[in-house]
Design a protein that fits this description.
Strand content: 5-15%
Distance between the termini: 34 Å
Order of helices and strands: HEHEHEHEEHHH
Largest sheet: 5 strands, mixed
CATH superfamily of the largest domain: ATP synthase, F1 complex, gamma subunit
Amino acid sequence: MASLQDLRRRIASVRNTRKITKALELVAGARLRRAQTRIEEMRPYADRMQELMVGTARAASSFRNLALLQRRDEVRRVALVAVTGDRGLAGPFNGQVLRRAFELERQASAEGQEVAWLVVGRKGASTLRFRRYELTGQWAGFSDRPSYADAQAIGHRLAELYETEEVDRVVLVYNRFVSPLVQRVTTTDLLPISEEVLAGEAVPAAGEKRRADFLYEPEPEEILQRLLPVYLETEIYRALLESAAAFLASQMTAMRNASKNANELIDSLTLSLNRARQAEITQEILEVVAGADALTG
């Protein structure tokens, strides 16, 4: 049995840990509310961007020769972009993204395709390096508070890889924020950009409305060529915001569970401490009684 001093030290240590986990839970909760607000503010912009692309595509006579729309006859190399966090203490957040990315790698290898790895976040980069993967691209330092400039840097690199035919397909893997308790691993084909997007299936009437309202200068094809990279950056930015909110939610939940476990451990250790003290007191009483009996005897 542990001594009273050891039990007191363990209780003090767990209490200090509980202070840290409680503080991290509160900080993550406050930052999560701001992250949710950023996602809500982003959605109207993304929707309007898609409406603009739909209207421009319907006004264009031909747009299938644009580089980011070119679908390759044979996919020989796939770029996997895994969006992870810069820090841990967030439960399964990083692990579930990487597991999904490794599943996609196995599927690509089974089909005879090579895989180029690109990763957002220090945790994903360190895991891939530990497994001796070569990284084609890496970004870090903004996983819990991304900016549009970060999405632009990623989008520019991905577009460059696709246009130079270094890769034939680009897949993004990230955690989508559903609720503070639910984060869902999501896989999105970024490139080539699907023609269904330009067909306006998500906004059926928007493109038709705007088609008659605008005169295009320069030509719609040239405008669309400029809009496609912006659309790519917007989709990446949306995924980064979703991932940031999912990270904070996962961290808040993990720290809440850690605080709860700390409370249970403190209760258990306190019970053990009380039992040990009671046993010590009982032993002292027995020793006093035995001494008194010896003197009277």
